[in-house]
Amino acid sequence: MKKKQYFTALSIIIFLILLFCPVQSKAKMFNDLDEFVSFLKQKGELVTVTKAVNSKFEAAAVQSKVLNEMDKAVLFSNVDGQGKRMLGNIYTSRKMLSYMFDTKPEKLVDKVLSYKGAKRYPVKFVEKASCQEVVNKDFKDILDVVPIPWNYEKDANRYITAGIVVTKDPETGKINTAIQRIMYKKGRQLNLFFAPMQHNWMIFNKYKALKKDMPVAVIIGADPIMMFASESGIPYEENEFEYAGAMRGKSIEVVKCKTVDRYVPANAEYIIEGTVPWDKKSMEGPMGENQRVYGYAQENPIIEVSCITHKKNPIFQNILPGTSEEHSLLAIPMEARMLERLRQVSPRVITLNLLPNFMNCVIKLDYYPPVQRGLGKNVLLAALSDPWIKYAVVVNKDVNIDDADEVNWAISARANLSKDLVLIEKTWGFVMDPSRKDRTQPVTKLGIDTTVDPLERERFIKADVLGYDKVNLKDYLSR
Q: Which residues, including other chains, have CB under 8 Å from residue 357's CB and lie 6 or more apart?
């Protein structure tokens, strides 16, 4: 083979390899939460409050005000006048999350979806870890160590809202992590809420059946990738630490806990170790929840805390329930899972957007000829099969699903509600849906198909000005 032909053939081979076996893009390497905070500060996405703030109500009020009026993250450096640090508002939008994955906000869901088949990396154990720079075993009260805030007026007590609970299946040894709401009770005791049918709830019920107490570790202030992995909704058989490694492109460093048989990220801010007795409960709640109402009080498991470790100058992370921060952190992995499922129904599904409070979604569909009519309703039925989704809207690709006005226009202008409404009664719904009297009741789900019948496309062309996207106002406005 001639030299020129050889290099031509080699170039074609390399092109095909890149085309069909793309290199997996890694998430941005923030080694810990403090590093992410420094990055946000550099990007102008963070404000710092040096004034002493009270962890009961005041910190939450300031955090909420910063979110609503400035749309920025906030770092308190002097909580309760004790020099303790608290952080909030770091996952409030697609833009903030896109920093973690080094991508554009509009590409975020597909980027997350790309990690499904990525190589998993087993954890790497280390002997020394920054999360154990300070070890507290002899404390009298958790609040002496951890600045747990009291967020909402009618909350029953102070709540840990960004705590990742690490459990282990007593039958298989499988490690599981998930963010759970955790109420401070008193002294060295916490209250723990396991959402029914979720993985940690299933694991705890296995311990109850064996009449064994369940060791747990609670991670507060995990690095952004570990935080995201814990809410990823990957299959039960998989390990969230290994999934975080897949996103990073390398193993996550972990360390064994001091008093329980669990391991945790070596770079976390706080670690609370303890045991959940199989036969003890305590009244927990109410708490301001993600639907911006107070969940009712009920008896839930407790954590008997045995040890608290942390960095020398740790950051307590606080997520205000019901805000865009809680929504974004949960919605993006949910969108990735749903997008994959909906594309199995039809490759014409372009993207989707879970509206605030997770229970509502808008789906963008490329629904023009040639396509079989009725596709919009098939996509709606697939979306409504998700327990979290209460109502869904499907729109054509000319509708901006991130603009509520555009979606409402599509409903009013394109949906014939006598024909385009899908109502499904007595279905399994989101466990925290406040419209039900109790969590055992089924729900009714609603779908609205605003897609244009391909045979009537000309009737529904949007009245738009020509050349809008090409106009740059700097060319027209004087300085």
A: 290, 291, 292, 322, 327
Contact between residue 152 and residue 288 where contact means Cβ atoms under 8 Å apart: yes
Instruction: For residues 175 and 303, give the distance between their C-alpha atoms in angstroms, rounded to a whole number.
Output: 18
Task: Pick the more confident residue, 21 or 406.
Answer: 406
Q: Give CA–CA dist 429/439, Å, rounded.
A: 9
Q: Which residue spans within 322-403 are E strands per DSSP?
A: 349-354, 360-365, 391-396
- How much helix, strand and coil, in percent to the nearest 5, is found in the chain? 30, 25, 40
Q: Which residues contact 123 (CB under 8 A, 6 or more apart)?
A: 239, 241, 242, 245, 251, 252, 253, 254, 263
CB 95: neighbour CB atoms within 10 A? 14
Supply the DSSP symbol for 355: -
- Among residues 179, 171, 391, 151, the alpha carbon closest in space to that of 286 is found at 151
Q: How confident is the model at residue 336 (pLDDT cuts 50, 70, 90)?
A: confident
Count Cβ neighbours within 10 Å for each residue of 413-442 and write b for 16 or more, e otherwise: ebbeeeebebeeeeeebbbbbeeeeeeeee
DSSP one-letter code for 24: P
Give yes or no for a contact between 346 and 378, defined as CB atoms under 8 angstroms apart: yes
**Three-point CA angle 277, 279, 282, nearest 5°:** 80
Query: Which residues in 12-45 are b (16+ Cβ under 10 Å) and which e?
Result: eeeeeeeeeeeeeebbbebebbbebbebbeeeeb
**Domains defined for the chain, CATH in brackets:** 33-320 (2.30.110.10), 346-459 (3.40.1670.10)
Confidence of residue 432 (pLDDT cuts 50, 70, 90): low
Q: Report CA torsion sign: 471, 477, 478, 479.
A: negative
CA distance between the termini of the chain: 64
**Structure-derived torsion over alpha carbons of residues 314, 105, 325, 198, reported in degrees to the nearest 10:** -90
- Whether the pLDDT of residue 14 is over 90: the answer is no
The pTM score is 0.83
Which of 236, 233, 268, 275 is closest to 254 using CA atoms? 268
For residue 255, the number of C-alpha atoms closer than 13 Å in the C-beta half-sphere is: 21
Contact 73, 90 (CB under 8 A): yes
Type of residue at 56: K
